[in-house]
Amino acid sequence: MIARELITNDVPPIRSSETVEKALNWLDEFKVTHLAVVDGTQYQGLISENILYDAASSDMIIAELNVPLNRPFVYEDRHIYEVMKMVSDMQLSIAPILDKSDNYMGLTTLPSLMHLISNTSSISEPGSVIVLELNQNDYSLGHLAQIIEGDDTKILSTYITSAADSTLLEVTIKVNRKNIQGVLQALARYDYVVNASYSEIDYQEDMKDRFESLMKYLDM
Hints:
Number of helices: 7
Shape: elongated
CATH superfamily of the largest domain: CBS-domain
CATH topology of the largest domain: CBS-domain
Order of helices and strands: EHEEHEHEEHEHEEHEH
Mean pLDDT: 87
Helix content: 25-40%
Number of strands: 10
Low-confidence stretches: none
Number of domains: 2
CATH class of the largest domain: Alpha Beta
Strand order of the largest sheet: 8-9-7-10
Largest sheet: 4 strands, antiparallel
Structural class: alpha+beta
Radius of gyration: 22 Å
Strand content: 25-35%
């Protein structure tokens, strides 16, 4: 999935000729902490709630603030992973998307990305989750697939997390079976360290708790 396919109309851009008051009202209405500032089709940058709250008067127009705007964006043909990385690295609530002529096309939002991630990661599919810890040099998706599929189980999705100061990886694997005792035993025979495993019910409850926590954060 590429950036142009992520565009949503949930949050409109705001013109630099609009007032600070209008921008603040939009932040509250659309539950975001940033707005894309445009002049016609030209993307000027993102304005954050901090800049708006620091304005001398809510009657000022955005162009009068005379503050440099950060200008993060992704081009329309960039992969969803690049969009996710920018949002994560810069702690953004929206991700502006431009065409190759640098014209503003639209944006995607953090909740929209979370919804897409949940679908593309097979989170809603029935099954179970296994969390492994292993050294970077020992990681082979092919070998893991061979072990797991040897127990008549299919891998639905995987993702990897790691710390900058560590050589260890945490590999999370979603599989299509509720009973994974055979898979866990097979992984143990190959000396894989299983940090955690979740049945479908456990996993759904865990994801529900995480999602509710995220929604509470977004509503702050």
